[in-house]
Amino acid sequence: MIRTVAETGSTNADMLLLAAAGAEEGVWLRAERQSGGRGRQGRVWASPVGNFYGSTVVRVRAGDPAAATLALVAAIALEEVVRVYLTDTVAPAEAGGAALGHAPAGARDAPAAPACAGATMWIKWPNDLLLGGAKLSGILLERAGDAVIVGIGVNLAHHPEDTDRLATSLAQHGVTPDSADFAETLAEAFSRWLAIWRGQGLAPIRARWLERAHPVGTALTARLPDGQAIDGLFGGLDGDGALILRLADGGRRVIHAGDVFLL
């Protein structure tokens, strides 16, 4: 079920309240606009009308993989959906993998933007989606008891110009999906990958994430919560979904939390 409101402060904050009141797993809340949208580490998330802002709740059960790995689930579901909309503009080398059963309304009808043809799309750890090297979306997980709130923001029609990170939108790449249609397609994909995560464990989620991530050997900088910055090469994910950095001295560092930047 997807509930839509014209405006709210934050869909994550609202979903936390709904979860506390007993909201069942699978419920989504979508806002046309947020006045207090936020990203990881308290960053402001610009929320003009035309983009997607939505949150859902997962009720963690005994035997589920670690709750933090729901970030990987959200990332691969989102990447799958965006790829359908960008069928004609994403670089051929990046295409492949499981496809959704249908093309969302407007996904194939909009003209491709010639300047963006061939743009590559990668997932960057832990859950950013990069299109043509710029940030397209963000995912924020918050937990209260057995409820994990998964918040997702996607730049469909607009993207910020005044941030410290290059950003982009689907409109800049030739398609402008309807946010309600995007919500339906994303909810379907997330539900399907959540069932795999719960029924088969983390292994297939990790494998899919690695297929869609920047290549092994990509130069990265990881900025840790304590302010330390570590340079290295992407070495994949460990069995728990943490980032592996290969260091210049031949060692490796496993990163469980932090911001990652491509060099």
Q: Any overview of this molecule?
A:
One of its GO terms (molecular function) is ligase activity. Its EC number is 6.3.4.15. By secondary structure, this protein is an alpha+beta fold. The chain is built from four helices and twelve strands, in the order βαββαββββααβββββ. Residues 92-117 have low confidence and may be disordered.
Question: How are the secondary structure elements laid out?
Answer:
Layout: E1 2-8, H1 11-20, E2 28-34, E3 52-59, H2 70-85, E4 121-124, E5 128-131, E6 134-144, E7 147-154, H3 179-200, H4 203-212, E8 219-223, E9 229-237, E10 243-246, E11 252-255, E12 259-262
Parallel strand pairs: 1-2
Antiparallel strand pairs: 2-3, 3-7, 4-5, 5-6, 6-7, 8-9, 8-12, 9-10, 10-11
Helix pairs in contact: 2-3, 2-4
